Amino acid sequence: MKIQPEFIDQQALIQAIRRDIHAHPELKFAEYRTAELVVQQLTNWGIKTHTGLANTGVVGIIEGELGLGKSIGLRADMDALPIHEKNTFEHASTHQGTMHACGHDGHTAMLLGAAHYFSTHRNFKGTIYLIFQPAEEGGGGARQMIQEGLFSLFPCDAVFGLHNWPGMPEGQFGAITGPTMASSNEFKISLKGKGAHAALPHNGADPILAVTQLAGALQSIITRNKSPIDTAVLSITQIHGGFTSNVIPDDAWLGGTVRTFNKSTLDLIETRLTEIAHGVAQTFNCQAEVEFERNYPALINHPAETAFAVKVIEETFGKEYVNPSMQPTMGSEDFAFMLEKVPGCYIFLGNGDGSHRLSGHGLGPCDLHNPSYDFNDSLLPIGSNYWVQLAKRFLE
């Protein structure tokens, strides 16, 4: 793989930053130290910053020396996860119960690597906005930054994001046109019955029996209501009810998640879920209360920007570094909110099989959201090089 020498030369610096962030993880909307570190580095490199969007968000503004022109947004996420790290190497988390188990430390460091390059190479026309976003992990930080004026303060002609991808060969890129990551939605269905002695069930209305029947009935939405060619997942992840063996309780509930790529399919699932919940409840003389929350929309890559990103990868690193078998994932990502407002593309960068981890890593695989995960530092110059070439080419 061909990487510009500048990114090889700066790797030790960017790696040190990445490991420092990994050792000091912070949860959604509380990335104070991380944001301060980002601001300090950008300021030291002569890059203007704007702070305060979505509480801890940071935007770096790099203006070209050749005058006004187009503008491009490059986004990295900064937050960690509420996971207790099992790794014991030197840069393992110092905050018990909090860990960078998704690589956001690496994403932030790669974008800082691009910033370091542009601090001394501004021979371009236009503006680069470096978007360091908080609260990707369930907080909707992208949505909040937009609501607080991200794209009115920093208008972008296009916006791009990147995520490391364990299991994909190290340094390969995956790009998909159109639906790439699923929407994320949660539901909770509460069933209210009438409690009774377990030996006298006819005196009550059993919500436990109702909730178990409902669990199976909801899967009929996926198999019998939606079109077989529309991808969707409905997973029941919680069932709660009862407190002792000889009492039928008054209440029980179940909850879970729905993932789709298509809004009309999601509308259908929500409608049928509500209808089935009330129907099953009525069958067992219970009452149903349905809560359905739409968290993140599906992430839809724009065709022109995706083709452009792939071309930049091919010309920068070689065609062999574009993974031909990358498939959409039912995982979700709040960069989808940005792509609803501005055209752009979200790509994946192979994190390898985990062999990069230092001695002292946990026994588990190097998967995302895993207590034995660690970002592959070999990707730092690759990701920074990609960001720089993408921005330069776009602004040409």
From TrEMBL:
Chain segments annotated as coiled-coil in the UniProt record: none
Species of the source: Polynucleobacter kasalickyi
CDD domains: M20_Acy1-like
Cofactor: Mn(2+)
Matches recorded under SUPFAM superfamilies: Bacterial exopeptidase dimerisation domain, Zn-dependent exopeptidases
Entry protein name: Hippurate hydrolase
NCBIfam families on file: amidohydrolases
One Pfam family matching this protein: Peptidase_M20
GO biological process per UniProt: diaminopimelate biosynthetic process
Manner of cofactor binding, per the entry note: The Mn(2+) ion enhances activity.
Molecular function per GO: metal ion binding; N-acetyldiaminopimelate deacetylase activity
Stretches assigned to the Peptidase M20 dimerisation domain: 186-277
